[in-house]
Amino acid sequence: MDIKYFKKKKLPDRPGIYFFKKGKPARAGGDILYIGKATSLKDRVKSYFSKDPKGKQASYGAGLIENRGPLIVKMVQDAAKIEWTVTDSVLEALILEVALIKKYQPKYNTKEKSDKSFNYVCITKEKKIAIVRGKILNKEKFNSFFGPFPNGNQLREALKIIRKIFPYFEDKKGIKGKDEFYKQIKLVPENLIENINNIKNIKLLFEGKKGRILSNLKKEMKVCANNKEFEKAGKTKRQIFALQHINDVALLKGDDFIDNKIFDPAPFFGCIKGNKVGHSDTKILLSTSLLRIEAYDIAHMSGKNMVGVMVVVEDGEIEKKEYRKFKIKTQTKANDIGALKEVLERRLAHIEWPFPGLIVVDGGISQINITKTILTKMGLKIEVVSVLKDKRHKAKAILGDKKNGLKYKREILLANSEAHRFAINYHKNMRNKNFLI
User: Fold this and answer.
1) Radius of gyration for the chain, computed over Cα atoms and rounded to the nearest angstrom
2) Residue 148 preceded by cis peptide, ω within 30
3) pLDDT value at position 253?
4) Which among 32, 262, 266, 316 has the fewest CB atoms less than 10 Å away?
5) Helix (H, G, I), strand (E, B), or coil: what is residue 71?
């Protein structure tokens, strides 16, 4: 593969899976030479085109041999193109990578490798979780098993994250009283029914069916709320939020290389297509969005016919079916902050709606502060930005979370503009309706 080809590719600075492929068409998946994962697709793939010891850029060479070994150099030489799939998180990339490697058995992932030294996540017939080495894996003992995972430390970190969302029992003899301690810190289920449900969700998670889990949990939460089981509904709501905001920073450590080994251990699942990956598997395995952005705006005329709106941009696209209107009930004067407070409180009371990864408000620091106050009060960790306008009501600056402000500038401005349009139209309709009365 030539360095000129790579330079034309604009890989995103996001977690995901990348594919080195042959140039010639082959059977489904047969053109894949290597599958890897990355916390940053841009940086990770760039590392394959390193500088040689003299600092000269090369398509492959001495610098790459020192870092990765001759087999990887050969793989880069054999490859004709790079494709990729973006994932929601490092955790999700890990699962997707293992699933795709297991299915396609790429030449350079499996060369000189043995599954016997790797780890599997197993679900026992007693509905417990175990990590088992391939060489002692007794498939008849387990209901389900997933793997192989080449990095044991990374797998254990992944299970720690999963266990905080879906507590489970371990299939191993530990320190006496350990289960009781884990129960106190809510890392084991409170009863057998909860354990069965959690194991079912963990199984779906390792099958890449996060979307189905979220759908089931939302239905369950709605039933609990209708039955006035508010404590149970609140618990389910927290699980939904945790799944939508996986905090997998622990998996970022040691993500890139295993010394000169072909198998590449890094992150895991919930995907969108980056460059026409062409694998139907990604659609089957994954059904979650890159980022849900909710934008809010208030419209009125000197405090009269005051309304608020919520619009949604998901994966960079407007989702009109997710739009919501709010007729302001608590404000009788021109009070944009008070109106925004009411809209956010009413929206966040709808625990059956998906939570956003980012909230966009129209205005300045005051709007950011009231939004953060409401989120803190409700125990929610959602990033917030505001769009500051000039005298002509044109976007002048994005305030608040700078990282997301830069990364999602286009989506933020799109959401803000759409919220303004939607709010003005709703206000005009209300005003015309009241005028005719």
Assistant:
1) 25
2) yes
3) 44
4) 316
5) helix
- Contact criterion met (CB below 8 Å) for 96 and 269: yes
Q: Is residue 297 domain-shared with residue 180, that is, in the same domain?
A: no
Q: Which residue blocks in 142-286 are alpha helix, DSSP H?
A: 152-165, 178-184, 192-206, 210-226, 230-244, 280-285
- 101 and 166 assigned to the same domain: no
107, 130: one domain: no
CB–CB of 33/78 below 8 Å? yes
Count of domains observed in the chain: 3
Token look-up 């998906």 returns 354
Q: Which of 425, 383, 415, 416 has its CA nearest to residue 401?
A: 383
pLDDT digits (tens, 9 = 90+) for 98-138: 888 888 888 888 654 555 567 889 999 889 998 887 766 77
Encoding tokens for residue 84? 């990729």
Express each pLDDT in 139-169 by its tens digit.
777 888 888 887 788 888 889 999 999 999 9
pTM: 0.52
Question: 359 forms bridges with which residues in the sheet?
Answer: 294, 384
Euclidean distance between CA atoms 174 and 189, whole angstroms: 17
Give me 424's structure tokens: 């003005």
What is the structure's pLDDT at 129? 92
Residue 72, domain extent: 3-113+255-285
Residues 230 and 328 in one domain: no
